[in-house]
Each structure stands twice: as C-alpha cells, then as structure tokens.
Write a structure and sequence with these properties.
The chain is of the alpha+beta class. The chain has twelve helices and eleven strands. A hairpin with a 2-residue loop joins strand 10 and strand 11. The chain is globular and about 65 Å long.
Length: 364
C-alpha cells in the first residue's frame, strides 16, 4: 500500500501548538512563565472577546484595538476564540494601563509594528520549514524537523529581539536623544531590474528561489556594514545606515555579487542622505522620497545618488562619480543625480547565498 503523503503544514502546526502554554493540559511549569500562572489550562479556545475584556479589565473597544494591532482578525460577537494565555496577555496590558505606567494608546503604538513583523516572521518561517522536506541531505523533515526547529526558533526570536532592542535603543539615544527625527543618515533602495517582465517569464518556484537569494544578498551586506533593512517589498529592499560610505559599499557590494552570480538578474540602486523621521520601525520624509526617485532613474546594473549623498562622500578616493542631467520626477521639478562607481573594479568575495529548492533562471 502506498504511503499516505504527509501534510507538512499540518505537521508544523502540531509542533507549534505543542509549544503554546495555553494549549497544553495540566499546570503551567515554572519554565514557561514562572509561578505566576499555577492553574490548569485548557487546550480549546473558550472565551469570547467580551469575556476576555471583562477578565482583563479592558473595555471591549480597547480589547478590539489591541487585538487588531497584534495583527489578528476580530471574531464575531459571541464567538469563542480566545485562550487562557490570551486573557493573561491582555490582563498584563490592562494592568500597566491601570497603574498609570502607560496608557492604552501608547501600548497600541508599540504593539502595531510588532504584530506586523511577527505575522510576517511566522509566514516566512513556516515557508522555510516546509522547504526542509525536499532539501537534499537533511535528516529533519515534516513534523520531526519542526519538533527540533520550532523550539529553537522560539528562543532565537526572543534572543534576536533583545539584542536588536539594545542596538536600536543605543543608536537612538546617541543620535537624537528620545526624539523621532534622526541626525542625517544614508537611505537606499535596491531593486531587481525588469522585475515585472521577469516575474511573467519564470515559474513561481524559480521566482521564489530568486527572491530568496536576492534578499539574502542584501541582508548579508547590510548587516555586515552595521545597517538595518527596514523592509522588503517583493523585488525591492529599503535599508538605512549611519554613514554614506557604508551605504555606498552596501549598494556596490550587492551589485558586484549579483553581477558575478550567474543565477541572478541585474539589480539597480538609489541612495540619498539626510534626516529621517523614524516611526514604528519604518522611515519617512523627503530623504526617503528622494532615494526612491533616484532608484527609479537608475538603469540596470547602476547605482545613482542624490547631491547630498555625493557631497557627504566628498573626495573619497574609493569612489568615482559622473554627474547626470537633472530630471523631472514626481514631486520634484528638477532632481540631480550622480552615477556612483568604485575607483577600482573589484571581484566580490562573497556570492549571494544559495536558497532552498531550484535555482532561479538567469534573466538579463
């Protein structure tokens, strides 16, 4: 008899649910949340939103705002869908608000970007775990692999969050105190050239592999240079870093690595320099807008910079510039740009990281 195919997502879900205290039976151990929750927990979601709000000491409206900020859909009135753990989490928020430590609006502002990022993180990790099934040479597949990896991912998420929080807080205090407007920074976009045409010509598995390699290439070089990837939007990555030199190295390193990689299409980039408004982990302001417009003007395999970025680099002997005619772009009557190149051609010492599954098709 043929073996019944495994459902990888079901197996991953089982492994993840086994890690959630609210869905275990029996007393919660001190290793989960300390001795604060000694009572027995049930596996099934048994509370409605109004019941959670009542037990936590929040209004139903504030409970809904908090739940939406975490990225979850609200359930119809009277529908049970919340667990003991949900009640405790909301109760802690209500406790802080009731003690006057924070108000609910402040909590919502902090929670909203976390909900967005964790939602995306969860989707990305499920996709990666599923990719282990067909990865050659691995002994962990399906639920067996998830049982090993889910606890590790849980610890790594908390560990990475703590370290990033320290780094971000230190940078914020040293750069601008507690204000939202930063000192001048470099901001850059790196895009896959001709992505719309490319996405129509290759199969989805190949497109996914291509995007994996592109993101790995950008993330690796931004992290090495001490910058931060703000977000990715399919074929585009937005990053910030403290110095123009670091931003130039990031953009040119990515271009060099892609050019030397036979499995990736050409990319192009745009860099600008100036103050940024940082809110909820994102960046805003004219400097970001200019970087985006500059990127639109760059051809495949090129990096363009705005005049402020060119001025910040000064006469650095590692780089060469060529002035381009000003262009009219949305929001700017005349936007000047410079083509950025290395003074000396370099061969990338690190190619873009390989991805799981099939290699992308080279399209230039």
């Amino acid at each position: 008899m043929a073996e019944t195919p495994r459902n990888p997502f079901g197996e991953i879900s089982l492994a993840i649910r086994a890690r959630i205290p609210a869905e275990r039976t029996g007393p919660v151990s001190s290793g989960d949340r300390g001795e604060r929750f000694p009572r027995t927990r049930t596996a099934s979601p048994g509370y409605t939103s109004s019941e959670v709000a009542d037990r936590a000491g929040l209004t139903v409206d504030d409970m809904g705002r908090l739940w939406r900020a975490l990225g979850f859909a609200e359930l119809p009135d009277g529908t049970p869908g919340f667990t003991d753990e949900d009640v405790e989490a909301v109760r802690e928020v209500a406790g802080l608000a009731g003690a006057g430590i924070v108000d609910i609006d402040q909590v919502i502002r902090v929670v909203r970007p976390m909900g967005y990022l964790v939602s995306r993180l969860g989707a990305a990790q499920v996709s990666a775990l599923d990719g282990l099934r067909s990865s050659p040479g691995t002994a962990v597949a399906g639920r067996d692999g998830a049982q090993y990896l889910v606890p590790l991912l849980e610890r790594l998420v908390v560990h990475a969050w703590r370290r990033h929080l320290v780094v971000a807080a230190s940078a914020a205090v040293s750069a601008r105190g507690l204000d939202d407007v930063s000192h001048p920074q470099a901001v850059g976009f790196i895009d896959i050239a001709n992505y719309t045409t490319l996405s129509r010509r290759i199969a989805w598995p190949e497109l996914a592999a291509l995007l994996d390699r592109f993101e790995a290439c950008v993330f690796d070089r931004v992290a090495t240079a001490g910058g931060r990837v703000v977000k990715t939007l399919g074929d585009e990555a937005l990053f910030v870093v403290g110095s123009a030199v670091a931003a130039a190295e990031i953009a040119l390193d990515v271009l060099d690595a892609v050019r030397d990689d036979p499995d990736l299409p050409a990319v192009h980039g745009g860099l600008a320099y100036g103050p940024l408004l940082e809110r909820a982990g994102d960046v805003f302001g004219p400097t970001v807008n200019i970087a985006s417009r500059v990127t639109d003007l760059a051809g495949a395999g090129a990096v363009l910079v705005d005049p402020a970025f060119r001025h910040e680099l000064g006469d650095d002997p590692r780089f060469r510039f060529r002035r381009r005619p000003p262009k009219k772009v949305p929001g700017y009557v005349s936007l000047g740009t410079f083509r950025l190149r290395r003074a000396h051609r370099e061969v990338s010492s690190r190619t873009c990281s390989p991805s799981l599954g099939r290699k992308p098709t080279r399209v230039r």
